[in-house]
UniProtKB/TrEMBL annotation:
<dbReference type="InterPro" id="IPR004559">
    <property type="entry name" value="HemW-like"/>
</dbReference>
<dbReference type="InterPro" id="IPR007197">
    <property type="entry name" value="rSAM"/>
</dbReference>
<dbReference type="InterPro" id="IPR013785">
    <property type="entry name" value="Aldolase_TIM"/>
</dbReference>
<comment type="function">
    <text>Probably acts as a heme chaperone, transferring heme to an unknown acceptor. Binds one molecule of heme per monomer, possibly covalently. Binds 1 [4Fe-4S] cluster. The cluster is coordinated with 3 cysteines and an exchangeable S-adenosyl-L-methionine.</text>
</comment>
<keyword id="KW-0408">Iron</keyword>
<dbReference type="InterPro" id="IPR058240">
    <property type="entry name" value="rSAM_sf"/>
</dbReference>
<dbReference type="GO" id="GO:0006779">
    <property type="term" value="P:porphyrin-containing compound biosynthetic process"/>
</dbReference>
<dbReference type="GO" id="GO:0004109">
    <property type="term" value="F:coproporphyrinogen oxidase activity"/>
</dbReference>
<comment type="similarity">
    <text>Belongs to the anaerobic coproporphyrinogen-III oxidase family. HemW subfamily.</text>
</comment>
<keyword id="KW-0143">Chaperone</keyword>
<dbReference type="GO" id="GO:0005737">
    <property type="term" value="C:cytoplasm"/>
</dbReference>
<keyword id="KW-0411">Iron-sulfur</keyword>
<keyword id="KW-0004">4Fe-4S</keyword>
<dbReference type="GO" id="GO:0046872">
    <property type="term" value="F:metal ion binding"/>
</dbReference>
<keyword id="KW-0349">Heme</keyword>
<dbReference type="InterPro" id="IPR006638">
    <property type="entry name" value="Elp3/MiaA/NifB-like_rSAM"/>
</dbReference>
<protein>
    <recommendedName>
        <fullName>Heme chaperone HemW</fullName>
    </recommendedName>
</protein>
Amino acid sequence: MASLIPPPLSLYIHLPWCVRKCPYCDFNSHAGKGALPFDAYIDALIADLDQDLPLVWGRVVNSVFFGGGTPSLFPPDAIARILDAASARLRFAPSAEVTLETNPGTAEHGRFDGYLKAGVNRLSFGIQSFNDAALEKLGRIHDSAQAETAVKLAQDAGFDNINLDLMYALPGQDLAAAEHDLERAFALQPAHISHYQLTLEPNTIFFARPPKGIPDEDAAWDIQEHCQALLAQAGYAQYEVSAYARPGRQCAHNLNYWRFGDYLGIGAGAHGKISSGAQQQILRRWKVKHPQTFMDTAGTPASIGGDDIITPERLPFEYMLNLLRLHEGFSERDFSARTGLDAAVLAPALATASTRGWLSGNDGHWQPTELGRRFTNDVIELFLA
Ligand SMILES: C[S@@+](CC[C@H](N)C(=O)[O-])C[C@H]1O[C@@H](n2cnc3c(N)ncnc32)[C@H](O)[C@@H]1O
Ligand code: SF4
């Protein structure tokens, strides 16, 4: 009989405000009007964490991620207050990675020293592009010079673990423009680059009124292949669909998600996934989405948007949805430890994937092939019950 063994634990903290809403973005982010209620929101985060603590008694937190929204709208003393409250309630691993998402348009002088002192040791900058015309079309609040200055300020303050988010397949973008974006990114020598294809998400302005000149699927594929080669040449190894890192600089927090690890999610609209060895089940919990509703209800059952136990029928799909994004693949032993299911349930789908040349297996370890990586969604669908 396979047995579910709780995997490593991470903590996600959602900070939901932005200077303004970008027209392509469907994250739970809201244009902040007037003075933001930092103190009230932090009180709510702490109440939320207190409510979730019994789910993770005694477990060690290996990474923390402040996501948004624009976490860098919160001043360093606010981030320090959150981290102090969290570390007073949870056991942090001494080497825990602590990331803060940063919009270059919010980088005030002196902020980065404060974040470092507060305990943040990794920054993720939403750069998107270094082309000023593209940034304007994307409704960004910064230009390329501000983006470069922000990254340099952070490096001068002592941050050496920096990610840059770039998007490609932008309106009017050709291969040369995408290449230029990467060259400007390489010049800043970040440890990590996330390279996302711009997607038109329902409930966004871009979905309702798509901008002119978005590259079609074939053109987007050409940009992606070309950029993958450039990233590899520059020393950034791809380890996930959109993630590239220098040796040893993969994002521990995101890796834990993709390896089907556990995470507490606190804050407006945050999602968590927690395994229980005693109950041999996995709980998904999410919080109410709207920041004001969250602040009004935090710490009470009314702040919980939903609790859902993942059924055994759905577990293989949910596991593969994460693991098959990773180049490293998975082992059957790990599948059993993280789902509590016997790996024999995978056999029919694995046989099909291997016949089609999508996965290659060796001694119980499976990895997506180059062909499989091109058809990630089709491969994952094989594991739907
Ligand atoms: C929460 S935001 C990062 C921090 C900050 N809010 C910012 O934008 O500067 C996460 C990242 O997701 C990416 N992203 C957001 N919407 C996207 C979309 N529709 N298509 C592709 N990537 C998207 C962007 O690269 C963005 O930096
Ligand atoms: S992309 Fe970032 S800055 Fe823009 S609305 Fe979304 S979360 Fe806010």
